[in-house]
Amino acid sequence: MKKIPELVFIFLLILSIWILGSSRTCESCHRIQEGNVSILPPPSPEPVPEPEAPQEREPVKVERPPKIQENITVLSGVFRKNLVMDRPAKIVGKNAKIIPQDPFLPAIMITSPGVEIYNLSLEFENVSGTEKPGAPGLLGIYVRTRGPVVISGITINGFPTGIIINFSSDITLSGISVNGTEWNGLFVLHSEKIKVSDSGFTGSAKASGVVLIDTNDSVFSATISSGNPGYGFYLERSYRNTFSGGSASKNGFGFFLVSSPENLIKDFTVFGNRAENIRLEESNHTVVLNSVLYGSKEENGIYLNESHHTVLSGLKIYGNRWNGIYVNSSTNVTIRSCKLFGNTPSGAYIYLSSDITLEGVESFENGWRGIFAERSSGIDITDSIIRNNPEGIYLGFVSSSSVTASKIESNSFYGVRVENSSGVVIHDNIIKNTTGNQWSTGIMFSGVSSSRVYRNDFLNNSRNALDDGANPWDSGSEGNYWDDFDTPEEGCSDTDGNGICDSPYPSVRDSFPLTSRIASVNSR
Q1: CA 208/CA 476 separation, integer angstroms
Q2: What are phi and psi of 14, to 5 degrees?
Q3: Which of 101, 128, 207, 461 is within CB 3.0–4.6 Å of 442 for a Cys-Cys bond?
Q4: How many CB atoms neighbour CB 280 within 10 A?
Q5: Is the distance from CB of 61 to CB of 77 less than 8 angstroms?
Q6: Nearest alpha-carbon partner for 457 in 437, 443, 475
Q7: How far apart are CA 177 and CA 224, in angstroms?
Q8: What's the confidence (pLDDT) of residue 129?
Q9: How many CB atoms neighbour CB 386 within 10 A?
Q10: SS3 481
Q11: 15 phi/psi in degrees, rounded to 5
């Protein structure tokens, strides 16, 4: 019985020690109660040092807002902590800078909806070991939450990675500036409904400005990606995203889309990238509108590979080291109202493709050909102007194709050259001023069968036409107007006044040469 008081005494002693320990203030944690924001130092097996004296660090000023905004925390000065936003809160900076105390953790981690952060500067201070690529946590902001989350007016300098958004939705970024990263400026994966506006991602040392993987239904407006050796914008398996009113310049690639259908790029300026300004790989139903693409250092203005049902409209593509537009192994592509000039070698090159429509295209002053189609079918060129190229249009090994209602003029060697092809129809065009030398020819057929040429105006060419086959150069009732065969002195008499010369045109098989120019063609 005497042992019972001893057990009671021991129990009471242990209980008092536990109560005393739990009542102590945690000197290693700093919590801003107004904003429900945890600001946590890194875990360490070493004893936590005493806090710095106030005079040895820049002050952290916390101002109490009006009661109606009790969830706002206002920060000013330099803050050497890692912020963990795990509850709804709002932070507003006033000349505030965050320097992560633990560089291996994000400067700001957001895991809760209802978070808003405004007007902060995040700076990375390199310490021993943080230069190792791929180390965890080396980034400015990490977001993993189903929003809403708003991040605005943030500058991120020198971090290995700027922002990562992962398994998130309804995240809004505006006025973001990410500079001098080692890897990616913005990396978004497994997310949707990300909105980015008035932001810039520049100067990566080794990677890209913006990367989207498995990310859908997002909008980027007035966003700049520049000076990144990888990609300005890279999309992989990402659907229905819109990019408008921004620029991608001086990157490895401007845009690179892989297996990413139904995306829209509009009102963009894409220039000076080392490889393609825009490249689509297996990215169907992509639309590129009203944009300017120029000055690719080594490749094409825009390159489509196995990308079907694509629309390129209202583009100005010039000064690219290779072709303005290169379509490869693709079907149902529409190129509409585009200006292609100063590209080397061709304005547009179409290879191993089918059902390609070029409408309202102006292709001029390119290094070799205005439009070049090879080993393809269903190439339809209409209502276009092809001028001032060494060769206007070249069709080689093509079938079921046409050139209609177009003006083909002042090309040096050939207006239209067709070789080893069948089923080509050329009608209602103007072919003029093909005068580079005495052999320059308006339209030349070589190895061509089952094709037809009619209702064209041939004007002031060194040679109007050549054909080594038996193709008819008339419709069966109307041929072409030949400026060297329209008077009796040149061999054209019209005794019945029906507008058809009584004799065939001698150079090719036009049995119904016209005595005057065609009204619909002449109006252009």
Answers
A1: 60
A2: -65, -40
A3: 461
A4: 28
A5: yes
A6: 443
A7: 9
A8: 52
A9: 32
A10: strand
A11: -60, -40
CB of 348 closer than 8 Å to CB of 361: yes
166 pairs with which residues across the strands? 189
Tell me the Cα Rg of the chain: 34
Q: Which residues of the chain have pLDDT under 50?
A: 1-70, 130-136
Residue with tokens 């309202």: 360
Helix or strand or coil: residue 521?
Answer: helix
The tokens for 37 are: 């924001």
Please, which residues bridge with residue 278 across strands?
255, 302
Are the CB atoms for 217 and 237 separated by under 8 Å?
no
d(CA 491, CA 488): 5
| Under 8 Å between Cβ of 161 and 122 | no
CA distance 199 to 232: 13
Dist CA 267 CA 293 (whole Å): 11
Determine phi and psi for 91, rounding to 5 degrees: -120, 130
Q: What is the pLDDT of residue 30?
A: 36
* Beta-strand pair 310-313/287-289: parallel
Q: What is the reported pLDDT for 426?
A: 98
pLDDT at residue 137 in the model: 58
Distances from the Cα of 105 to the Cα of 31, 96, 296, angstroms: 18, 19, 38
Contact between 481 and 501 under an 8 Å Cβ cutoff? The reply is no
How does DSSP classify residue 336? E
Q: How far apart are CA 358 and CA 345, in angstroms?
A: 18
Q: Two tokens at 91?
A: 């932070």
Q: How far is CA 159 from CA 136, 154, 182, 225, 499, in A?
A: 12, 13, 7, 16, 77
Q: Is the previous residue joined to 345 through a cis bond, with omega within 30 degrees of 0?
A: yes
Three-state DSSP class for 166?
strand
Q: What is the pLDDT of residue 75?
A: 85
